[in-house]
Amino acid sequence: MNDQHLTEPEIQQAADNPELLCRAQEEHFIQCVNCQLKVDNYRAIAGGLAHMKSSAFDFDLSAQVMAALPPKKVPYSLIPAFAAGLGALLIAVMVVVFGNRINSFLAAMSASLLYLAIIPALVLLVLQLVLTYRDHQRKMNNLINS
Amino acid sequence: MKYELPYTDETLVRKILGGDRYAFHLLIKHTERLVAQLVFKMIPVAEDRKDLAQEVYLKVYSSLPQFRFRSKLSTWIGQITYNACLHHLEKKRPVLLKAFFDDNEKEDPLKFVGNAAQPAENETENRLFAKELEETIATALHQLPLIQQTIVALFYQEELNLEEISGITGLPEGTLKSHLFRARRQLKHILLRIKKRGEL
Question: For chain B, what is the domain count?
Answer without folding.
Answer: 2
